Each structure stands twice: as C-alpha cells, then as structure tokens.
Amino acid sequence: MLGIYLGEDTMRIFNIAICLSLLTLISAARAAEPPRTIVTTQFTQDIANLPGKKMITLTLDMPPGSKGVPHRHAKSAFIYAYVLSGKVRSAVDDAPVKVYSPGENWFENPGAHHVVSENASATEPAKVLVVMVLDANETVLTTPDPK
C-alpha cells in the first residue's frame, strides 16, 4: 500500500484552506437570507369601553430587501397598517399585490391571510405603524404558515 506523506506545514496550510472555504460558504448562505423586519411594541392597552378587548400598536422597521413570510395573526385581531416611510409591498387573502407609499394604509380582518409583506425597495428602508384590536387574552400575535 502506498501512502503519501505531507509535511506539517503542508497539512497546516491544507487545514487553513478548508476552514476558510467553510467560512466562505457559511457567509454566503447568510448573505443569501433577506434581512429581517424589526418589530417593536409601542403600546398595549385594555380598551375600557370594549370589555375583553385590547389595543396593541407596533412599528415594523423593514430594512432594504426584507421579506416577511406568509402568516396569520391572532384569530380575533383586526389590524390597521399605515406606511410611515419607504414603500411596502403587501397582499392579504386573495387581493392583488399592491405597493403602498407613505400615508397609504390597509386593513386585515380577523382570520385574514397575509401572503405578501415586504419592503418594495432593495436600497431604502421602510417603516409601518400597525394597530391591532384583539381579545385581551390573546398572547400569540403572529403565526407563520407551516412550511
């Protein structure tokens, strides 16, 4: 049986090359993922004249190129969304995809399926104000579609 002997320096260089290749692959895989939207709760309040209901306001900071996954909100949630800045591409249920600009808005009825939610720009951030009215006992606000 023939064997090939590689010196210590050659093996060290070979190991470093393998490690660098793996790091490059990992970095490339991470770079391929679109940036994620940052969701910040701004306000939560029980609604005094609607017993059992609460209102939650959120802001969505959408980096350039960010894309949400299709999802549904809490079953009791009525949602109002208002674009503060940037351009947002959205589609709810069977409605066509639409690009919303600052000052434009949409709503989602309880049980609605939000099939498209993304920043319409690859270079500019977008920001959305979301107001939800839902049952006070709801704790899970968003459920992504199963894969």
Q: Summarize this, please?
A:
This protein is an alpha+beta fold and 147 residues long.
Question: SSE layout and pairings?
Answer:
Blueprint: H1 8-32, E1 38-46, E2 53-62, E3 71-73, E4 78-85, E5 88-92, E6 98-100, E7 105-108, E8 113-119, E9 126-135, E10 142-144
Antiparallel strand pairs: 1-2, 2-9, 3-8, 3-10, 4-7, 4-9, 5-6, 5-8
CATH superfamily: Jelly Rolls
Pick out the low-confidence regions.
none
Level-1 CATH class name: Mainly Beta
Helical content class: 10-25%
Average pLDDT, to the nearest integer?
87
What does this structure look like?
- With 147 residues, the protein is an alpha+beta fold.
- The chain has a single domain (38-144), classed as Jelly Rolls.
- Helix content is 17%, strand content 42%.
- The chain contains 1 helix and 10 strands, in the order H-E-E-E-E-E-E-E-E-E-E.
- The strands form 2 sheets. The chain has a 5-stranded antiparallel beta sheet with strand order 1-2-9-4-7, with no helix packed on it. The protein has a 5-stranded antiparallel beta sheet with strand order 6-5-8-3-10, with no helix packed on it.
- Strand 1 and strand 2 (53-62) form a beta hairpin.
- It is elongated and about 80 Å long.
- The termini are far apart.
List keywords for this structure.
17% helix, Jelly Rolls, 1 helix, 42% strand, elongated, alpha+beta, five-stranded antiparallel β-sheet
